[in-house]
Design brief:
mainly alpha
């Protein structure tokens, strides 16, 4: 007659044990992300911290302050508050971002995506290729091309003269309008690609059901399509806003921030203060404000996206 040994039951883990096991599992799943986190800390977080520190000093490009900068606390930011050129640059930056990214690139990119989806394949291919060309051009090349386009003897004025209208000094009389249109031309392709991918994911059955219920094409677009691509709209707005906020080369080549300060955005002002006037600490403070402004835009878009995610 054989006997069997009793089976020992392991005690159920306590609350602390379950939390410890859950923490270990989370740590194990996060381990593959460690190299990426290290790289982000070195190449993103590190420069941001260094820039914030530099904005609290009187670092200069040359001279004694370049060799031995001193900590001056918030003096640079206090000087910014009383600098009318800074506030002008803030307003111009917000206007540049709003009209060239939020309105221009976003709306035009969505309109092109919708039109290409409803047009024939050859037409969609040609239009898509023409729009993408502006996007893939290096910024400096696109900037010189647009400078020639808007210059006194450029393509725009040649077209105006061909129809009997007087030429306009676009880069002198309307510098912000010129750089806004230039940035819209260059960046619309990205929004078009995002929205083309989003529209392709919209189920055709939903639109057909709305059509059977009596909704016309405009109603189907605003009441069915737009709500279904809301997440893509929010993501696209965040990306193009942050990209436009840091635009420098396009404006610098076309107008240099002028005439005067009529097209001086925050990145341009930071460059001028740091490298033309040799006030590196002051210019870094302007760059830090630009970083904070980008964070504000990002938080706003995340708040807009949050109900969709939940």
């Amino acid at each position: 007659m054989t006997t069997t040994s009793p089976v020992r039951l392991l005690p159920a883990p306590t609350g602390a044990g379950r939390r410890r096991a859950s923490a270990l599992r989370s740590l194990g799943r996060s381990t593959p992300l460690l190299p990426a986190l290290v790289l982000l800390a070195i190449f993103l977080l590190g420069p941001i911290i260094y820039a914030i520190w530099g904005s609290l000093t009187n670092t200069a490009l040359t001279g004694y302050k370049a060799a031995k900068p001193q900590f001056i606390g918030l003096d640079n930011y206090a000087a910014l508050i009383g600098d009318k050129d800074f506030w002008t640059a803030v307003l111009l930056t917000v206007a540049f971002v709003f009209f060239s990214a939020i309105v221009g690139q976003n709306v035009l990119g969505l309109a092109l995506a919708v039109l290409m989806r409803s047009s024939s394949k050859p037409v969609a291919t040609i239009v898509g290729a023409l729009v993408v060309v502006a996007w893939v051009l290096p910024e400096i090349v696109a900037a010189f091309a647009l400078y020639a386009f808007f210059s006194a003897d450029g393509t725009v004025n040649a077209a105006l003269q061909a129809v009997g209208l007087a030429p306009v000094s676009w880069l002198i009389q309307y510098p912000m309008l010129a750089v806004i249109l230039a940035n819209v031309w260059r960046g619309t392709a990205f929004s078009m690609q995002v929205y083309s991918a989003a529209l392709a994911e919209v189920p055709q059955e939903v639109s057909e059901a709305a059509q059977l219920d009596g909704a016309n094409s405009v109603q189907r677009f605003f009441l069915v399509t737009l709500p279904m691509i809301r997440r893509s709209i929010s993501t696209n707005l965040m990306l193009i806003t942050l990209q436009t906020l840091g635009t420098f080369g396009l404006i610098w080549v076309m107008t240099g921030g002028g005439p005067g300060i009529q097209s001086t955005t925050l990145p341009v002002l930071a460059y001028q203060q740091a490298f033309q006037f040799a006030q590196v600490g002051y210019g870094t403070a302007i760059a830090t404000v630009t970083l904070v402004l980008g964070a504000v835009f990002a938080v706003l878009y995340i708040k807009i996206l949050k109900p969709e995610v939940e």
